[in-house]
Every structure is written in C-alpha cells, then in structure tokens.
TrEMBL record:
Species of provenance: Paracoccus fistulariae
Residue ranges with Polar residues bias: 53-62
Keywords of this entry: Plasmid
Biased composition (Low complexity): 120-131
Region (Disordered): 49-77, 107-131
Protein name (database record): DNA-binding protein
Amino acid sequence: MKYTAGQAAKATGVATATITRALKAGKISGKKDENGSWMIDPSELHRIFPPISQRTPESPSIKQDETPPIAPERGIGSMALEREVQTLRDALNDAREDRDKWRNMAERLSLAPPSPQIAPPRGWWPWRRRS
C-alpha cells in the first residue's frame, strides 16, 4: 500500500509541506497519480523519515526543518561570540547613520541653487603693468 502525502505526514509525524518539499527536492521518490496526488512507497518514505512507532521516548522528536533547542548553559566562548556580534551590529548601525547623513548632505547640495560667480572688478587685468 502506498502513502499519499497526507498519509505519509501522519505516519512520520512531520508536516505535509515537509513531505512535498522532500519529494520536489528529490530526497524521496514518489509519483503522482491521475488525480495529481503523490503516491509514495513506504520503504522510500521511511528511508528518510522514520515512522512514529520507531521513535524512542527519551529522544525528543525534532522535525527535519526545525531548529534544535538551544541549551540553557552557555560556555565562555559563546558569550564572547555574542559580545562580538553585538559589537559588529553597533558598528554596522554607526556606518548606516553616517551613510544616511552623507546622503542627506549630498541631496541638500544637489538641490541648493548655484552660488553666484564673483567677477573681478572692472578694469583689473592681471597682466597689466602697474605704475
């Protein structure tokens, strides 16, 4: 008996979207029937997604697309990395503020009326000899 995508999701405990993504990505193989429903061989499905009955209670169930939970105890190395990340974020924010200030100044200068040209006084020629 072959599974549909919904039946496969129930048999493995993952979302139907996860099953269809795996099918489209080629992680598991299946065929569409005349109605457009996926038909998945159970052995092919359970090659990637174990059945619910085989999961052990002491190992928590983590879906394929789910991020594992973060452990509450963190080492000194991770705290140093978090400080470094915060320092880089602050530097990025400062750079963005500077960029915005320069952009505003450039816009103001491009919209400002041109400054009048100051002409030399009449009768003044730099090559004229003065007595």
